[in-house]
Amino acid sequence: MAILNILSKIWDYFATNILQQPAFMIGFIVLLGYILEKKKWYEVLSGFLKATVGYFILSAGSVGLINTFRPILVGLKDRFHLNAMVTDPYFGQNAVAAGIMKEFGRSFADTMLLLLFAYIINIVLVRFSKYTKLRAVFTTGNVQVQQAATAFWLILFCFPKLGHLPILIVMSIILGLYWAVGSNLTVDITQELTDGAGFAIAHQQMFGIFIFAKLSEFLENRAKKKGKKEARRLEDVKLPGFMSIFNDNMVSTSILMLIFIGAILVVLGPDYLVKAKFMQPGQSFIFYILQTSLQFAVFLAILQLGVRTFVNELTESFTGISDKWLPGSVPGIDVAATLGFGSPNAGTIGFLFGALGQFTMIILLLIFHSPTIVIAGFIPLFFDNAAIGLYSNNRGGFKYAMIMPFISGLIQIGGSALIATWVGMAKYGGYIGMFDWATVWPFFTVLMKFLGFVGICSLIIILVMIPQLQYRADKKGYFMITEDYEGWKKLHGKE
């Protein structure tokens, strides 16, 4: 018993100070990788510091975006007295914490045990990549906590009478597989987007990114076969005349956000903004709109600087870990890291069209008297749809950077409203709201709820088969794309 208590304290310390702090998690991965590569001590220290500081810079950009724009969107709920659920990972986590004891008589602390077991399963699956064909280790600890919380609620909804240990075992297997399989789906498309930067996505929309990227590519290839001109990517579009100002990412982002955020602020009105303490009494409403809208471009630039700072260190150092312990693997990191690659405008376009899709579905929920009204949270609104726009543009061209995020926005709100109402989370005010949790996890929940243990077995088989099918599609290049990207490009004629 004493040994278990010691191990529990060690895990709690690691989870709180490292796993849930991605900057330190990435820093220690770089540190370990360079040690395994037998770098000189000052190179090890330099790599650790650059990676950690770089991730802190990325986090500063991400947090700045979230803290600036989340209250504005949530303000719509208060301004119009809506009894609405917010789609946001942190609101979702808080909903689980508030309701898990009332609904199921379970402690939120169990989610940390679920996270531990699922994390171990993810690493083991990647360690035996020769058989599992899984290549990505999920390292985004703050996201893992949010997902463990929601996953815990969903399985308790399906099996409310299942014992404490069986619940943890079943959910650890499913969640660990989801992390490994989902991240693995993004390996190839991310390597191509970043020209071999050596990471995958470990976030909340991994299946969504893969589906929309592949769908964009499929539709574009089909159009080419019909004799249509090859679609241009956003970075290849050069606008004429006064429109040329939109060729500059900072200018285009500023103007588009001025229109989008400005419209929301006008709807909220200066009186509400002063009452909610967003604005100071006597402050100019026009200049408040300008300042708030232009901060988007500021925080996006900070985020991109952070990506450039830490990604090179992570890529180089992870080779040591890959060679020694996890052959052919890459780290799965925050989706925000992709915003430093591809077209600078694709993320902004994806965000805006995703917002259009989300607001369209919210209006439809109101028109059809949905039992759950949803307020769009900023994190799904931006990080899901910006990334989907980025990948869709890279695989299919600029029109898919608009179409795919719009479809995603519709699905995010509609799917979240359905699942959160069904499982009872809506009444606690929040649901995770990201793309996979509005599509993939509702599918998981349906299987488990209506097929019981047959559903669990079916789900595990489906997840295990996905990487096997990926491997069969490109046996020669499957592991080469992570181990020798230049060789992979040569093999596929993409030099």
Automatic annotation (TrEMBL):
Any Pfam family the entry gives: EIIC-GAT
Q: NCBIfam families per the record?
A: PRK09410.2-1
Q: What does this protein do?
A: The phosphoenolpyruvate-dependent sugar phosphotransferase system (sugar PTS), a major carbohydrate active transport system, catalyzes the phosphorylation of incoming sugar substrates concomitantly with their translocation across the cell membrane. The enzyme II UlaABC PTS system is involved in ascorbate transport.
Q: Tell me if Lipoprotein is a UniProt keyword of this record.
A: no
Indicate what this protein is called per its UniProt record.
Ascorbate-specific PTS system EIIC component
Keyword match Transport: yes
Q: How does it sit in the membrane?
A: Multi-pass membrane protein
Give the CC-aspect GO terms.
plasma membrane
Instruction: Please name the GO terms of the biological process aspect recorded for this protein, alphabetically.
Output: phosphoenolpyruvate-dependent sugar phosphotransferase system
Q: Which residues cross the membrane?
A: 18-36, 48-69, 111-129, 150-181, 250-273, 285-305, 403-423, 443-466
Q: What subcellular compartments does it reside in?
A: Cell membrane
Keywords in alphabetical order, please: Cell membrane, Membrane, Phosphotransferase system, Sugar transport, Transmembrane, Transmembrane helix, Transport
**Main site of residence?**
membrane
Subunit relationships: Homodimer.
Family membership noted in the UniProt record: Belongs to the UlaA family.
